[in-house]
Amino acid sequence: MKFKAEIDVMPHDALLDPQGKAVSNSLKTIGLSSVDGVRIGKHIRLFVEAPSIEEANVMVEEACKKMLVNQIMEAYHFTLSVA
Q1: What is the per-residue pLDDT across 38-57, written as a single tens digit (0 to 9) for each?
Q2: Calpha distance 1→55 (Å, rounded)
């Protein structure tokens, strides 16, 4: 079966997010002063061929831990669906 993984990666809350801070400051300069706490992350979509959703879950988890996410600085969450 083919599965689609939607992975969201965000910096840990305890870490500074310079890109998010820059966007937050820029929003204030264009009159959106009520917007605050901007955090910038990344979204990854990939497709996995696996015999079951459990095995696809293991494969995506491994891809996140070994390649896609720096676990020291980032947290991640993903969902799987049949493609």
Answers
A1: 999 999 999 999 999 999 99
A2: 10
